[in-house]
Amino acid sequence: MNNNVNKYLDEIKEEVDAYLIKEGAMTVKNGEKIALPGSCNIRWKLEKKLLKERYGIDWKSPADLNPEMKFD
């Protein structure tokens, strides 16, 4: 993955995590964030949207790059 994209993914990580927690796709236990099954699809959709809106980046998620695979 392009280092520039990693930089932007790092910038939006806390916002994305907060959204996942609010939506029940991630939980916090003993101070540790734990992604629940299926949350990767929600994460990637939101990351893709934010990267496009904020940075003009047309990012391809692992699901986009591997349509024959099922991610959970």
Task: Give a structural overview.
Helices cover 57% and strands 11% of the residues. With 72 residues, it is mainly α. The chain has one domain. Strands 1-2 form a two-stranded antiparallel ribbon. It starts with a helix and ends in a 7-residue tail after the last helix. The model has no long low-confidence stretch (mean pLDDT 95).
Number of helices: 3
In percent, how helical is the residue content?
55-70%
Number of strands: 2
Separation, N- and C-terminal Cα atoms: 21 Å
N to C succession of SSEs: HEEHH
Low-confidence stretches: none
Cα shape: globular
Structural class: mainly alpha
Strand content: 5-15%
What's the topology here?
Elements: H1 3-22, E1 26-29, E2 32-35, H2 39-55, H3 62-65
Antiparallel strand pairs: 1-2
Task: List the main descriptive attributes of the protein structure presented here.
single chain, 72 residues, mainly alpha, two-stranded antiparallel ribbon
What's a concise summary of this model?
The protein has 72 residues and is mainly alpha-helical.
